[in-house]
Write a structure and sequence with these properties.
Elements: E1 6-10, E2 13-18, E3 21-28, H1 41-45, H2 54-70, H3 73-78, H4 83-95, E4 99-106, E5 113-124, E6 127-141, E7 148-150, E8 166-171, E9 177-180, E10 186-187, H5 196-206, E11 216-221, E12 230-236, E13 241-244, H6 249-259, E14 265-270, E15 277-283, H7 290-293, H8 303-312, E16 327-330, E17 333-336, H9 348-353, H10 357-361, H11 364-367, H12 372-379, H13 403-410, H14 420-432, H15 459-474, H16 479-482, E18 489-496, E19 505-512, E20 515-521, H17 531-542
Parallel strand pairs: 9-13
Antiparallel strand pairs: 1-2, 2-3, 4-5, 5-6, 6-7, 8-11, 9-10, 11-12, 14-15, 14-20, 16-17, 18-19, 19-20
Amino acid sequence: MRTGAKVAVVGGVFVLVAGGVGYGAYSVLGTDGDGGGTGTKAAAAEIRTGPPDGTEIADTSKKFLAAWASGDASAASQLTNNPVEAEPLLTGFAKDAHVTAAAITPGPAVGPKVPFTVNATVSYGGTSKPMSYASELTVVRGLTTGSPRVDWKPTVIHPRLTAGATLRTGEVTTPAIEAVDHNGKVLTKEKYPSLGSILDTLREKYGKTAGGKAGVETWIESPDAATPKQTLLTLTKGTPGKVQTTLDADAQAAAETAVKRFSQASVVAIRPTTGAIRAVANNPATGFNTAFQGRQAPGSTMKIVTASMLIEKGVAAADRKIECPKDVMYQGRTFHNLDNFAIPDGTLTTSFARSCNTAFIKQIDDVDDDSALAKEARDVFGIGLNWQSGVVTYDGSVPEVTDGEAAAQYIGQGAIQMNALNMASITATARNGTFRQPIIVPRDLDDRQIAVAARSLPSSVSQQVTNMMRQTASWGTGQAAMAGVGGDKGAKTGSAEVDGQSTSNSWFTGFSDDLAAAAVVQSGGHGGDAAGPVVAAVLKAGR
């Protein structure tokens, strides 16, 4: 049963009762497994089954939209398959969002789906403004009544409305902000859509102390207090406070353009000497911030950390001979190279530049410590520490594992979880020699505690790994992607296999002078083919 409503049984039908008044038929006992009892055969025979037909779809959607537009939330909710959850949101459209008029226009039905546009007027404190958007509804057959009903979802009210969230209009408690890049250029979510959730978070965290004056807005309020409000309409602007970020407008613009080449892609750029985040972009641009919060295996880009660990342990060196067979078995698991290639008489640099998996896995017995990679990632590269960038981030994970899983982690598979931010930071650390925790707003803005790694990478190790990345960009697997990038440059490619996915994820990370970047393209295949050009575009713009 739904909470917040009393239940009575009338004639074998559950009737939801609010304040003692019948609220509407909800379910019939014994039909379609909804009630757990048994109904009469006569009652069951009267219930229509199958999808609603065109007439029913047109009639139900028309009645629902008309009732909603007229402000009759009770009537509109009764035309849905979940009136208890529908009515508060439909009521709140006028009461909480202060919509004083609405013209709702349906489009042609596509099967059971009916698209529609909403042209509303929002009024508050003597100010009115229009608010327009498009959404859709789906007409389904009621399981217990057989009648056509609107399949209730919060997105019927607004496409960005989620479960438990509400539409509200009023004086905001947190003033708006004017975010600027490190050169003072204004950053807006309209020009840089990937920054939408980031700018919302910066407003929630720093708006009250940035010197601005609050205005009147319409917003989506999440049930989770930690989730920033999503502003939909500004009725009166107030005065925004200025918030300085570490971003670079040129690099951000390039990042936004680069990820649009693919249906799912993310990229981040960082300045190695300071940890300043220069760009972050996702496609899709709205919703989950995959670049900062994603969790995926990074493939062979992880060999930056593995190579650092092997050199530190004295197991390998950049110019030392290392075997690269076409395949290798470890603890019952067989690992192979792409297209089963082998490198006779090669060095660690050769295997790194050509991304030989077996060369790295064959070193695991000589390391003789299954926790070594996890320690290197945490103690030197800062992975898994509590990063305080200024917004929410996932800070990577390299768990301590054993047997075949340990071998898989040497090549960035297994239980390792990373995102573009983490990999850009790893490249920045290899380049700089010391982990500088990524930040998107200056530390002195709020005196937050920045994560510090336990130790730096020895200079000789940093030099060897950086030089191997240079070779990768010069003649290795990153050559094509990095050809147009100037300056002192290096790279590492990666392809991460994902269960249930026919094509691997494409990973690429690289640096040019004092800028490091990393990208991932879902189902992009080879690292240099998809993610490589994304990274190259950002490096060229940000130098």
